[in-house]
Amino acid sequence: MEKIILDGNVVAQEIKEGLKSRIDLLKNKGITPCLATILVGDNPASETYVRMKGNACKRLGIESIRVHLPEETGTLELIETIKELNNDPSVHGILLQHPVPSQIDERAAFEAIDIRKDVDGVTSTGFGQTALGFGQYPSCTPAAIMKMLDYYQIPIEGKHAVVVGRSPILGKPVSALLLNANATVTTCHSKTANLPEILKHADIVVAAVGLPKFIQGSWLKQGSVVLDAGYNKGNVGDIDYDTCYEAASAITPVPGGIGPITIATLLKHTVDSAEKL
Ligand code: NAP
């Protein structure tokens, strides 16, 4: 069976190439697209993600403002910071790095982001628009998964897609996007009974679990398309790559799969917003 390794770096590069002339055009008008990232606390993984996003902005000529708040920040203080960024006309996108420390009401903080600057689809309005099929800025990782399928022309319509995970920024929105693309979607979670049995019927598998090497090749249907959104310590995803590789007809590596497209999508949404605002 021919096997396709779904290369996220190639797709990300294409997205970024497409942004260059749009950024130049904006700059000629005196507008520099600007993404503000907010990191609360000192979670090393989150620090890495935020740094990667900031560096990706710089490489493309997008301004990046990094706001780093202390671990003990409260909900109201964080919301105040978000409001300042909402009111700053030079800022086009706001990304609050998830997860925030436990004393913060993360949902309340997400909701404070101006919908026009919600470039990672985290507000309930952004999510609702995505689910209804007219979202401007779907969450970046779900959008990246759809972009990967589109780039490699993998058919979605009529296929059974199984999404493992139902988080508000990943599992739920990617389930909605797949449904809007006419897949028949099953969304699984920690209380799902007989997950391996469900996966045996999946044409498309999305792993969004947050558990390293969780999904086993023996659970998959031969020839399935496997998209691993997971990113865990030690550079491993949420699938057991070696065994899943055997079963899959197409598979994403980690790193170099969904991750680079996620970042490119965030840059694209920031440029989209700079053009609109
Ligand atoms: P999350 O908020 O922790 O959600 C994990 C989901 O997996 C939950 O819905 C949970 O179910 C489900 N789950 C946990 N254990 C399970 C089990 N044994 N069987 C079935 N489902 C189970 O995580 P997330 O933010 O969605 O992230 C998921 C993964 O994607 C992580 O590895 C993360 O690092 C990665 N990620 C990658 C990118 C990227 O750019 N590539 C971006 C974001 C996240 P319940 O709802 O029942 O608890």
Automatic annotation (TrEMBL):
Q: Write out the entry's keywords from A to Z.
A: Amino-acid biosynthesis, Histidine biosynthesis, Hydrolase, Methionine biosynthesis, Multifunctional enzyme, NADP, One-carbon metabolism, Oxidoreductase, Purine biosynthesis
Tell me which Gene Ontology terms the entry assigns under biological process.
Answer: L-histidine biosynthetic process; methionine biosynthetic process; purine nucleotide biosynthetic process; tetrahydrofolate interconversion
Q: In which pathway does it act?
A: One-carbon metabolism; tetrahydrofolate interconversion
Query: Does the record bear Hydrolase in its keywords?
Result: yes
Q: Which reaction(s) does the protein catalyse, per the Swiss-Prot or TrEMBL entry?
A: (6R)-5,10-methenyltetrahydrofolate + H2O = (6R)-10-formyltetrahydrofolate + H(+); (6R)-5,10-methylene-5,6,7,8-tetrahydrofolate + NADP(+) = (6R)-5,10-methenyltetrahydrofolate + NADPH
InterPro entries, A to Z: Aminoacid_DH-like_N_sf (IPR046346), NAD(P)-bd_dom_sf (IPR036291), THF_DH/CycHdrlase (IPR000672), THF_DH/CycHdrlase_cat_dom (IPR020630), THF_DH/CycHdrlase_CS (IPR020867), THF_DH/CycHdrlase_NAD-bd_dom (IPR020631)
Gene Ontology molecular function terms on file? methenyltetrahydrofolate cyclohydrolase activity; methylenetetrahydrofolate dehydrogenase (NADP+) activity
Function statement: Catalyzes the oxidation of 5,10-methylenetetrahydrofolate to 5,10-methenyltetrahydrofolate and then the hydrolysis of 5,10-methenyltetrahydrofolate to 10-formyltetrahydrofolate.
**Subunit field text:** Homodimer.
Q: What is this protein called?
A: Bifunctional protein FolD
| Organism encoding this protein | Neobacillus rhizophilus
